[in-house]
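All the exercises in this workshop are built on plain-text protein records. Sequence and backbone structure share a record, each on its own labelled line. The structure tokens are whole numbers drawn from a learned vocabulary of backbone shapes. The record below serves as our worked example for the rest of this section.
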Amino acid sequence: MSSGESHDSKQQSESISAAVLRILQQGSVAVMATLIEAANAATNVGAKLLVSDLGATTQTAGTLGNEALDLAVSDQAARVLESRADLRVFQIKEFAPALTEWSDAKILFERIQAEPRLVICGAGHVGASLAKLASLTGYRTTLIDDRGEFVAQQNFPEKNIELVAAENWSDAVRAAVGNGHGVSVAIVTRGHSEDEQCLRAVIPIDVDYVGLIGSKRRTNIVLRRLSDDGFDVARLQRVHAPVGLDIGAVTPEEVALAIMAEVVAGRRGGKGGPLSAWRREKNAEVEGKIGEEGKRGKG
């Protein structure tokens, strides 16, 4: 490699590093594409292209060494990000067959984002259980309550749980949520008033997920009050209320599990159904065919 090429490579590496740092600090998401295999020995294997702010305002850093390849990989990066996969490997011919000279080259796509965050409003039995489960699941967690004794450090030895004794629910929630990128919010306070204060603070922010605990009646009361006060209907409709997946939860720990399952499903693009559903559908189909054949045999 010539000294000029080495200098360019160093500049690209620094540019990518700076872009990754910015993405993590802002709570944004990006995809790092790395050329890991190519037929041409002269090709810069290891070259990287970072694709961030996907959509109408796509931004890139680095290059794979070919403009057409960069464009095709940027388009594929958008699809990888939409799939919510953390890591995928593709040959160029799988997504850009027109680039025949690169057909057998392989690209590693890696999702780049800060560790997931969960802000929990309410440190009662459910909130406390949820904070500990979220911590175990790898989420950086903030637990908020206006009762200082409920967020005492001795109750939560986990290092990645931030405890906030709120003087004002709205201010505490807004400070914890920030710009909302990569943040899920679970509102599990002790009453209508606290729920409403927290939801009023969260709704204007583009969080990844927001869930509200309570019966259909209780959650409808809160959502209706916000709608009557002019909050955006589309944003209110994105609130998961009642919060959590239906697993028949009864105990606080089970309710926390139901909430955490829904949060993870939203982040990973899961459907929340049983993984074995396909088997039962297949068995039912086979049984149906056997039944039809039996009827024809009798006829």
About this structure: The beta strands are 29-37, 48-52, 59-62, 87-91, 106-113, 117-121, 140-145, 161-165, 183-187, 209-212. The radius of gyration is 25 Å.
